[in-house]
Amino acid sequence: MSAPLSPGRIAAALQTVTTALLGEMGPDGYWIGTLSSSALSTATALIAIAQLPVTERTPGDEVLIKQGLLWLVSNQNEDGGWGDTDRSHSNISTTALVWAAFGATKQDAQFLNAVARCQQWLQAAAGSSAEGWESLLAEAIRRRYGKDRTFSVPILSACILAGRLGPEGWREVPALPFELAALPHSFYGAMQLPVVSYALPALIAIGRAIHHHAPTRNPLLRFLRNQLEALTARKLEALQPKHGGFLEATPLTSFVLMNLAATGEAHSTTARRAAQFLRDSVRSDGSWPIDTNLSTWVSTWAIGALKWQPELFHYEERSTLRDWLLDQQYLTRHPYTNSPPGGWAWTHLPGGVPDADDTPGALLALLALGTVDVRTRNAGARATRWLLGLQNRDGGIPTFCRGWGTLPFDRSGADLTAHVLRAWSAWLPQWDGPFRRKVKAAIYRGLVYLKKQQRPDGTWVPLWFGNQNTEEEANPTWGTARVILALRELSDRGFDVPPEMLRRGEAALVALQHPEGGWSGGRGRGTACSVEETGVAVEALAGTAHTGATDRGVQWLVNRVEDGTWKEASPIGFYFARLWYYEQLYPQLTTVAALGAAVRFQGADPEVE
Question: How many alpha carbons fall within 13 Å on the CB side of residue 143?
């Protein structure tokens, strides 16, 4: 039994976690963090490098392949498959790509046991071990993603290039209309493309590879695609950052590279940049993460988590963080999404793209840092206008582009909308006249959207976070906590928040609490409490009438801090196409925010007794 919860214990735990989080700050005055290594990313990088002709190889490429394969074997799950991270359940996508990586590198014999176990897992997933089971596997992969081809087509193309789907493998892959990329960007949303907005490089590279190996039988369409190949190749090069990494993402960059090699273009500028990005981003253990880093995202989150302790930052530290954040705002139209100036991306690196989670995060962080000078106010105005231009007709906020509502990761999201409403309402005192009225109207449209998105049980489901153990891999704990936080802040700032919506949300979040005091993504079988999910729940409930649930959650977190397990990260993050990741700073960020809020609302002295 742990000691009774007291203000002194909470304050001591808060001091411990705060000191640790501040210690994670980099030498340049901001946070970077570390994403989990990914079997999927590692597999795609190996396939891409293996596709390069000898003339494009470097002496170190064979070493990368060997180290990467060894890392994959050492991280194979007991059931023979692979998950996206070393803490993830086996899934058909990652396991198929690892299987393809062994084939592409011609190392089946070298790793015979691992490959055999992998193939058995895939045959079970396909539902047959008989001859021709590969077609059933392809169908299972297509079925997993439905009409969204963002990930199913790249996976199938990788398996084909690795020789895993036979000589007729290209017939297993649905065609991608890469020719549409030749149209102006303003047409994309209305065309209902079969891939999400951020996957345009894959649309072009893989679509062209399919056209190269299995052209359509329609003579007019075939002619059109032939005529537009060169133009779309130039478009692809224009979308690529100079350092080669599309979205800073290993999988996306790898898929582009392997398919360019498949069309004989490994010598192109685009391919060479992509290959160099992969070489530069490999880790010392031979693995790759899904993305380089989330520096802007974790830095703004850290600033927000520490806001309950304003005395922590000296003036110079605040100025350094403020200037760094302001320098990350996009001041020109972005070539990738055609986004106008004003937004922030998740990273300070050149592969980032402005989005509707990092932009409100930056806005809130700037306010938390204190004085709003002229430069900061101008940045806030640009970002507020940028977000206003992103709001969909339904009142919700999408991630990158307005109007791309066909596929899941392009739709409005409850978590994104809640985050934006928090930022808009916090900045509202800075505005007056018609602009102020426009922002208020947008906030109320967002509230209408959130009310419609509330599920019958009172919860909300987020877009970019999940839980691998819950129904449909959703995370109602995360979504509900984030919306509650927004509704409470809006209510405190005088907005007419439907009381029943907030009451039902709080009750639903309390109902998701486990008997031991923590939270997971839900209450289903096999769900275990995590530091991240408990942290966001406690932060959302701190200061409400639900003191019993809050105190039990705080007790759970304090126990983890005291026994040293509070830094254990869980794979709750979604990347594109439900690609899981965890981040080493997430448990630290959520714990600091939760205990800071607990001290603030429970009146505990932040100094250790």
Answer: 9
Neighbours of 450 (CB within 10 A): 25
Examine the pLDDT at 606 and tell me if it is beyond 70: no
Query: Tokens at residue 39, please?
Result: 């079997």
| Residue where the block lists tokens 């403020």 | 322
Which phi-psi region, left, alpha or beta, contains residue 183 (left: φ > 0; alpha: ψ -120 to 50)? beta
CA distance 245 to 254: 9
Q: Measured at the alpha carbon of residue 98, what is the angle toward residues 528 and 250, in degrees to the nearest 5?
A: 85
Question: What is the C-alpha separation between 413 and 549, in angstroms, rounded?
Answer: 27
| Per-residue pLDDT band at 577 (split at 50, 70, 90) | low
pLDDT at position 525, please? Answer: 57
- Quick one: which of 426, 429, 398 has its CA closest to 411? 398
- Give the span between the Cα atoms of 230 and 398, in whole angstroms: 32
Encoding tokens for residue 332? 């020109």
CA angle 113/119/125 to nearest 5° reads 145
pLDDT of 12-51, one tens digit each? 999 999 999 999 999 999 999 999 999 999 999 999 999 9
Q: What is the rounded CA–CA span in Å between residue 373 and residue 380? A: 10
Contacts of 463 (CB under 8 A, 6+ apart): 399, 408, 409, 411, 413, 414, 415, 416, 574
pLDDT value of residue 604: 41
Rounded mean pLDDT, 337-356: 93
Q: How far apart are CA 252 and CA 334, in angstroms?
A: 18
Q: Mean pLDDT over residues 172-201, rounded?
A: 68
pLDDT for 113-128, tens place per residue? 999 999 999 999 999 9
More reliable by pLDDT, 192 or 256: 256
Token pair, residue 453, equals 């998105």
Q: Go through the domains of the chain in sequence order and give each one's CATH number.
A: 27-35+293-453 (1.50.10.20), 37-289 (1.50.10.20), 459-602 (1.50.10.20)
C-alpha distances (whole Å) from 459 to each of 176, 496, 537 are 37, 20, 12
For residue 145, what pLDDT is reported? 81
Q: Which amino acid is residue 570, in one-letter code? A: S
Q: What is the 3-state secondary structure (H, E, C) of 201-248?
A: HHHHHHHHHHHHHCCCCCHHHHHHHHHHHHHHHHHHHHHCCCCCCHHH
